[in-house]
Each structure stands twice: as C-alpha cells, then as structure tokens.
Amino acid sequence: MILIDAVTKRYPDGTTAVDRLTLEIPDGSITVLVGPSGCGKTTTLRMINRMIDLTEGRITLDGADIRDQPVNALRRSMGYVIQNAGLFPHRTIADNIATVPRLLGWDRRQAKTRALELMERVGLDPALAKRYPYQLSGGQQQRVGVARALAADPPVMLMDEPFSAVDPVVRKGLQDELLRIQAELGKTIVFVTHDIDEAIKLGDMVAVLREGGKLAQYAPPSELLTAPSDPFVEDFLGTDRGVRRLSFFTAAGVELTSLPIVAVDSTAEQLTERTLPALDLGKTPYLLVTDTEGRPLGWADAKLRAAGDTALTPYGHSFTAGRDSLRAALDSAVLSPTGWAVAVDESGRAVGVAAQETIAAAIRDAHAERPVLLPSQVAEPDGDGGPAGTAAEDAAVPVRPDGAGA
User: Fold this and answer.
1) Residues 165, 170, 176, 178: is their CA dihedral positive or negative?
2) Where are the domains of the chain?
3) Which residue stretches does the UniProt record annotate as biased composition, category Low complexity (predicted)?
4) Neighbours of 347 (CB within 10 A)
5) Kindly report the CA angle at 210 between 207 and 214, in degrees rounded to 5?
6) Cα–Cα distance, 194 to 208 (Å, whole number)
C-alpha cells in the first residue's frame, strides 16, 4: 500500500501545489487522480517516485518511508508512463522496452526476450521490435511506453495522462488494454488524468482534487457519482452524471423479446403466417433482420417486409446481454432509429431487442434496489478527506463502465 500522509509541496516562491494531502492507495488497484489544471495531480504523482521532493508530511510504500530508499533504486522499482510515451528516438522498440532491465543488470538476450513477451502482452506485433519510435503510430508508441514500464515487473506503476495525446478511438482501445493487463497482473497503479470519463472507467478509487492540491473527495466511481461531497465535485462531474452512474448497473435485468427477429432468408409466407400474427404491430412495427448466422443487419418495416420489400435501416449499435451496463443498453436504444436496443451475445448474434420503455423500467428497478443516497445519508469523510462510510459502499454495484465485473 502507498500512504500519502499529510503531504504538502510548497515552492520557494510561496506557491502551494499540494496542501496536506492524505490518501491510502490500496495494493493491486487503479487509483486515479483527477481535477482541473493546477490541482497538483502530476506533482503528487512525481512525489511518489521522488522526481519532486515533498515539503512536509511523508509518503510510505508498504510501510517504508520513500526518503529512506536510494532515489535511483526507488525509481527503478516503479514503472512510469507519460504523455507521448517519452521513448528514446535512437533506440529500437525492443531496446526501448528493455531499458530498465538492462539498467538492472539483465543480460541482453534475457532483456530482449522480456521485451518480445511484453510486446505481445500489450497488443503489439513482435515484428515491430526492430523499428524505431518514429515508424510507429501514436497509439503504438503509447503501448511501447506501457510495455517499458512493465519490463522489470514493478509492483507499482505511475501513469501521467498517458493516453491524452491520442485520438478518442485509440484512447478507448488503450484504456481497454490497460484494464485487460491489470486484470492479469494486478499492479498498484496511480493514474493521472483531467478526463472524468477516463477516471470513472479506469479507477477502482478516484481522488478529485481542487485547485491548490486540496482533496475534495476520495471514493469509488459509483459512490462519487451517487453522492458528490460538495458543489465543486458535483460541477466537475458534469450535468450528465446520472447517465454516467448507469455504467455501474448491469443490463442483465432488461427484459428482451426475440419476436421481431427474423432471418434475412425468411420468406413472405413465413412472415405473414408466423411472425406478424405474434407481434403487436401498433407497438412493434419493425423487424430486426439478421444474416443466416444470426448477426443483426438492420431494421425493416414489418408490413413492407412481408410484402417483399428488402430495404433495411441501420440498427445503430448493439449491447452485449449479460455483460454490458444499463448505460450501454440505453445508448443503444437512443441511437436506434426505431427506439429499440439490439442485444447480442458474446459472438455477436442477436438474442433480443428492448424498447426504451423497457430499459426505463429496468433503470427504475435498479434504483429501487440501490437507491441514490443523499449527502446526509453518506458517512462524513474523516478529517483527511478519506473515503466515505459503508452506506455508500453498499450502494455500489459491481459493474465496471467497460462492462466487466469490478
């Protein structure tokens, strides 16, 4: 465990970057530091590996004060990932990844083997090992940065806005990759970001800092969205925090119907005699047409389809039944031109559809089972801004925003 105990960083000109910050960062989890510019996120991160020296307080790693350790040994015991990867441009990808193992005395062959293993782990083709950073895309370079941080198998990883310089699609892929790697390796990760959506998706715990390095709230993401501690946190979370909170409710309770699902090779006779009589065309005037393997192709007007019309309307996007969240299901319904969400299984085959009204009922049921807590119902944080009490913890639902179990 990393303990940040009443830590202050004050510069010679009198500027206080971090002000009596206290955090307990649990082992094997991702703790995210988030907040506006000037709130001390990066300063806090760099004090953990002594790239910046603290002014007051102390930081301990498994009970040992970090100032009692040789600074080079401390830094080599922690992986460090920054924006734009920070790779050595004159070294190959394999040599970049092998940097810390070589500094620790590993022989060249052992370090190269480790580099190739890690390239596969972070989703990089080993054929890229002999290339140089400029020959890779931004997303590939960030993966190299993560691999380099993992090279010596450090128990702690520090990540300073590592995905902020890439486009949203690549960023989502890198976030998913980090969660996959973390599920396999269970590192203690301290992650800095200014993006609240990224914090909620990645964090097991989220520390919201206000300007001047003061802790505003420290809590699991679901609790943060349920009961922000004050107007500053509420404003920082944004006006759509209710929708974000749906990320922590599973869509398993959404009632699905398979009646409107038909295969692309269904005949007009089959539709007229079997499918249409089973539907209430006033409520369900559309059919979801799938390919012969059951994967959705698009929506069709039920009566026109039975009359031989083959036109299809795109279905938007689907959600995975039993895995995704209520937020994903609601998003699927809202973006569907028919107002119906399409549910698929892990192989992408359609298993049912759900109307917006059905998803709304599931949302009401989820809230009834785990009601939103008012601030007065949540135990007050301790004097150091520690986590709130057990009432809010009991309200949390063990579903990550990526759909996986927490």
Assistant:
1) negative
2) 2-77+155-248, 251-365
3) 389-399
4) 9
5) 75
6) 10
Give the dihedral of Cα atoms 286, 287, 289, 292; nearest 10 deg. 180
What's the chain's Rg over C-alpha atoms? Answer: 25
In contact, 212 and 19? CB cutoff 8 Å:
yes
Secondary structure of residue 174 in the 3-state scheme: helix
Q: Answer for the pair 234, 210: CB distance below 8 angstroms, yes or no.
A: no
Q: Which CATH number fits domain 251-365: 3.10.580.10, 3.40.140.80, 3.40.50.920, 3.40.50.720?
A: 3.10.580.10
> Position 124: which residue type?
L
- What is the per-residue pLDDT for 272? 87
Q: Which of 140, 146, 179, 151 is nearest to 162 (CA)?
A: 146
Checking DSSP bridges between strand 2-10 and strand 350-355, what pairing results, if any? Answer: unpaired
Q: Which of 326, 331, 370 is nearest to 226 (CA)?
A: 370
The vertex-143 CA angle with 139 and 149, nearest 5°, equals: 145
Q: Kind of pairing, strands 78-81 and 156-160?
A: parallel
- How confident is the chain (406 residues) per 10-residue block, as mean pLDDT? 96 94 95 94 96 96 93 90 85 92 89 92 91 92 91 92 86 90 94 93 95 94 91 90 87 92 91 84 87 95 89 93 92 94 96 94 84 42 40 41 46
Q: Residue written as tokens 């913890």?
A: 393
pLDDT at position 103: 86
Per the structure block, which two tokens stand in for 112? Answer: 């190269």
The whole-number pLDDT of residue 23 equals 95
pTM of the model: 0.77
